[in-house]
Amino acid sequence: MNSQSGLVRTPPSFSLSKTVLLTMFLLSLSNKMISADEEWAMVQRKGNQFMVKDRAFYVNGFNTYWLMVFAVDQSTRGKVSDLFEQASSVGLSVCRTWGFNDGGWRALQKSPGVYDEEVFKGLDFVLSEAKKHKIRLILSLSNNWDAYGGKAQYVKWGKAGGLNITSDDDFFSDPTLRNYFKAHVQKVLTRVNTITNVTYKDDPTIFAWELMNEPRCLSDPSGDKLQVWIQEMAMYVKSIDPLHMLEIGSEGFYGPSSPGRLQFNPNTFSQQVGTDFIRNHRALGIDFASVHIYADTWVSQSITDDHITFVKSWTNAHIEDAENALGMPVLFAEFGVSSRDSGFNTSFRDNLVATVYKPVLESSKRGGGGGGALIWQLFPEGTEYMDDGYAVVLSKAPSTATIMSTQSKRLDMFSSSCSWRWGCKKRKDDEDLLDHDEL
Predict the structure, then answer these.
(1) What would the 3-class secondary structure string for 49-118 be?
(2) pLDDT tens digits, residue range 337-348?
(3) N or C, which terminus of the chain has less Cβ within 10 Å?
(4) What is the pTM of this model?
(5) Is-catalytic flag, 431?
(6) Residues 379-401 pLDDT 10s
(7) Choosing from 129, 210, 214, 247, which is the catalytic residue?
(8) What fold, for 18-437?
(9) Which one of the listed residues 210, 251, 323, 334 is annotated catalytic?
(10) Is 362 a catalytic residue?
């Protein structure tokens, strides 16, 4: 089937010279020695780079949204540890996961301001296990979609409390609902971990906070309503926690403020959902840009070469805008392809992963603003029943695991040669790593 459609792709070659391999090995040993002596310091943003102390930090990471609920039950808690161990084995350094579950099963927030302590202890466990494996977390604080409650649940709570609201988008504008969300932000950020005894807002294990997973406000295509919400909530988060970085959680669609960039959107609908990439990320308090990549949802659900063409254009446009228009890093915080798509094969997935990784690697090489990428999504064995089609189980996807591992090693090498104090040093071996279209 795949060969007839012309979609079989040879996975990218990752053969490296003995010189390069030796250099990577020696640098890895050196970095481990440095890291062993360093404090587990908080990641910060300086200019268009992520930094840990004076060292650049380029991200190769993953998403696994369900960690908190799995950590609640002793029968599934071990899967959290398994996941971090497997992610660490291929050098992944950041995990994005949910710091919310509003109403319903295993709810963290059962009703406005009412929390389940056992579920909170599950999130405590996720943080403690992440640190053990030297993985940092992006914690998302709400959802645009209904899964795990989201803005629709806040609206239900508001209606039950007698509020005159008619649309899920009232989440962004109704004063009572905004205060419900602020109360949740305050609760999570000031939580004291029952395992580590560290307050979340002081914990370097947290890479960043995310306001909302994929915010959209279709009722206001101008983007004004969402922009006001972003600015208000960003300043509120920073008033509680000025140390951690903050991002929006946006998909990256261009809007009315940048008509010259609309050409990069995947379709005309995406410019009408109330988001505006450049304008949104100019809100005071936002530290880096977030972008998602789903060609198989936005362009076509049948696998075609157009997906790769779109991904190249989309990633390069956002790195350019992050550097030149925003002066901040950009994180491709979700990307993937579903095994349920017509024409899917693992070679195509490998090609797509490598296509996302390449501009990040090129950016890291020059000390640029391509801050990293997080695949959607990584699962350990035994959790496939949760698969939405995008799950990658490393033990069952050795070619993808190799690509991930190689990207991690390369980013670590380039990060080690890039210092805020001294700038980025060029190395001949750095050049070799990008020769021959290896990505």
Answers:
(1) EEEECCEECCEEEEECCCHHHHHHCHHHHHHHHHHHHHHHHCCCCEEEEECCCECCCCCCEEECCEECHH
(2) 999 999 999 999
(3) N
(4) 0.89
(5) no
(6) 999 999 999 999 999 999 999 99
(7) 214
(8) TIM Barrel (3.20.20)
(9) 334
(10) no
